[in-house]
Design goal:
17 strands, Rossmann fold, alpha/beta, 2 domains, 407 residues, 12 helices, 7-stranded mixed β-sheet
Length: 407
């Protein structure tokens, strides 16, 4: 028995040594990313970076990226763009010209992606991005830009449909719904405004408030005073993490009573952790939820991804893993899949392989249009119910009934 035990230990040591040697033997594929680690987008920039790094380690632990029979691991050079577009563009130039990066992961936000995309396009550098959803990114004719997430005009448009359904259940016409819109003056939020406005017009709804949030996103009390006066049935707010926190805080402070409130970036702003019951019944758009029935061979199901990610990043232990993190992981997965199908490190072959992606992942389906946006994944709406995020729309994906009107 002792001999068998010693033999088992020896075999385990040899196996571990062989495994470590195999990992060490892999060459590196060098990726680059200018991303917001400070400034107003820092919260989500860090979420995205964590998602990138988790994917890189997971791929490494599962045999790396196999290109034409040879093993590679990803390595990323990050620079902090400080949430400034001009700095992001300068850093993209540095990554390409000085660091000789041939493949890029995207920054955080549509505005930062807009600043960097002309640079990567000029140098014909494939960029898979996970955090720039503005539809205006995909009407420029870019050939080297690919986004795994749904475009921004879809984010809160489903809230308009939901409001129409609630009106009709009350025996009213959808056109009776009054809508208030308050968004940040940035490409992402302006696209959300456009999507909501288009859907409201389709139903014949009246937009009674259409305002831009203050530049620093720290005070929307003047807008909320108008909300109290005009009594809309649906309030739409988009201002990234800081705007979400301001909205939830001041809606509570000013005792705003609107039947339906829909906001972006609820999770990233940790509105449940910061404001408790004040966040209840708010609708939150999301690209991804851990309850969705998505699955792949590397990361498993959506719920398995969340559980395993929390084991690595303990700071997420007591809260939801934000979709910004999940989609960043999905972007790295797209690169792995493309390199392996291309069977080459040639950037043009890799670019062509990315354009032909047809991949099911824990994050959802990924398939790119000719313009580079993902056409295989829908948006969903979750409602905060007793501090929990529950999917309520579209109905095909709903796990819970909608609480309406909001208390």
């Amino acid at each position: 028995m002792k001999k068998l035990s010693m033999l088992s230990i020896l075999m385990a040591v040899v196996s571990l040594t062989f495994s470590q040697a195999s990992l060490a033997a892999c060459d590196e594929i060098h990726l680059g990313s200018a991303i917001s680690l400070t400034g107003k987008y820092a919260t989500n920039g860090i979420h995205a970076k964590n998602g990138y790094e988790y994917a890189i380690q997971k791929i490494k632990e599962n045999g790396g990226v196999m290109v034409d029979g040879k093993c590679y691991n990803f390595k990323v050079t990050y620079y902090d763009d400080e949430s400034k577009g001009d700095r992001g563009a300068t850093l993209a130039e540095r990554l390409i010209s000085q660091d000789k990066v041939q493949y890029m992961l995207g920054p955080y936000s549509s505005g930062m992606t807009k600043a960097i995309a002309p640079v990567t396009e000029k140098y014909k550098i494939p960029m898979v991005e996970a955090e720039g959803a503005s539809r205006s990114l995909f009407n420029k004719g870019y050939k080297y830009l690919f986004a795994v997430l749904s475009t921004s005009e879809q984010y809160l448009a489903s809230a308009v449909t939901l409001a129409a359904e609630m009106a009709e259940k009350q025996g009213k016409k959808a056109s009776s719904v009054k809508v208030a819109i308050a968004v940040e003056n940035d490409p992402f939020s302006l696209d959300i405004r456009a999507g909501v406005s288009e859907d409201a017009a389709r139903y014949g709804m009246k937009v009674v408030i259409d305002e831009k949030l203050p530049r620093d996103l720290s005070d929307m009390s003047a807008i909320l005073t108008k909300v109290k006066l005009l009594k809309p049935d649906l309030l739409i707010v988009s201002g990234h993490s800081k705007g979400a926190a301001t909205a939830v805080r001041q809606i509570d402070e000013q005792n705003i009573k609107v039947p339906m409130i829909a906001i972006t970036h609820c999770e990233a702003a940790d509105v449940t952790g910061k404001f408790g019951d004040a966040a209840n019944d708010i609708l939150c758009s999301t690209q991804w939820a851990e309850t969705l029935a998505y699955k792949d061979p590397l990361f498993g199901s959506a719920s398995e991804y969340e559980m395993d990610f929390k084991k690595v990043y303990s700071e997420y232990k007591d809260k939801k893993v934000p979709y910004q993190t999940a989609q960043a992981t999905a972007a790295v997965y797209v690169f792995k899949d493309a390199f392996e199908r291309a069977g080459s490190l040639d950037k043009e072959k890799v670019r062509d392989a990315i354009s032909e992606t047809d991949l099911m992942t824990f994050y959802g389906g990924i398939k790119f249009s000719a313009a580079g946006n993902n056409v295989a994944k829908p948006m969903v709406l979750r409602q905060i119910q007793d501090g929990k995020y529950n999917v309520v729309a579209p109905s095909a994906f709903a796990s819970h009934k909608l609480n309406w009107p909001r208390k």
